[in-house]
Specification:
Rossmann fold, DNA polymerase, domain 1, 2 domains, two-stranded antiparallel sheet, 9 helices, 8 strands, 15% strand
Length: 235
């Protein structure tokens, strides 16, 4: 897919044609079960356990990229322990982020191309979307191992946009909560949107700054309404 110019001007009030979402801590909260699954691995390997705060601060890469760095030639065993635990528990403990369901419902019929680009294993991602009744909101749900390289590579973004006729560019908003999401957006030439309560800290995103910061899904809904992408409430 040819990439459009990476330049963008958020002051122009340009309307997006596509919204690509990160998944964990953007649309859903599964940090507790992710942490417990990691701790099942660490306990088996005699390693120090993590808190949820540790997971939020440290997890960025997909398992297939992160585990070989941490576990070396035991990465396959570590991945099996993690996946077995996660598969047993993730759906029962899955929670939507505040306002996420309302945002997706409001976007239904908007004409925007909606997709997900996540470093969660693709089969887990799609099971969670189905469990929440959200599958129909998205044209594409792209997870780890669905493409040759995972986020922040461009390939998952291109797959999420495939079939839409929309090129990577400022009309594609890439929405996430971490530095790897902003890196992915800029690698693809899309508009990076930081979605989390905390504003960027000094120096946090120097190499890959967000173009827009919004505190939560309700804030994104409000921004899209202000741009006329969504109608006012109760219309």
């Amino acid at each position: 897919m040819t990439k459009a110019s990476p330049g963008y001007d958020v002051s122009s009030g340009a309307r997006p044609r596509a919204l690509l979402f990160d998944w964990d801590n953007t649309l859903v909260d599964t940090w507790d079960v992710i942490t417990d699954a990691l701790n099942a691995v660490y306990d088996a390997f005699g390693m120090p356990l993590w808190t949820i705060a540790d997971s939020k601060a440290r997890i960025r890469e997909s398992m297939r990229e992160a585990f070989p760095k941490t576990f070396g030639d035991r990465a396959k065993d570590a991945g099996r322990i993690f996946s077995d635990y996660f598969a047993l528990h993730h759906l029962e403990r899955l929670r939507a982020m505040p306002g996420a369901g309302e945002l997706l419902q409001a976007l239904a019929g908007s004409g925007l191309h909606l997709g997900v680009v996540s470093n969660k294993r693709g089969r887990f991602l799609r099971l969670e979307a189905e469990h929440l009744g959200w599958t129909g909101h998205f044209a594409r749900l792209v997870g780890a191992a669905d493409t040759r390289l995972d986020k922040p590579a461009v390939e998952p973004v291109e797959l999420a946009l495939s079939g839409s006729g929309i090129l990577c560019g400022a009309e594609v908003w890439f929405i996430g909560d971490t530095d790897i999401d902003m890196r992915c957006a800029l690698n693809a030439g899309c508009l990076p949107v930081l979605l989390r309560p905390e504003p960027p800290a000094a120096g946090e995103f120097d190499a890959h700054p967000p173009a827009i910061h919004l505190p939560d899904c309700a804030g994104l809904t409000a921004r899209l309404r202000a741009l006329g992408v969504l109608p006012p409430p109760n219309m």
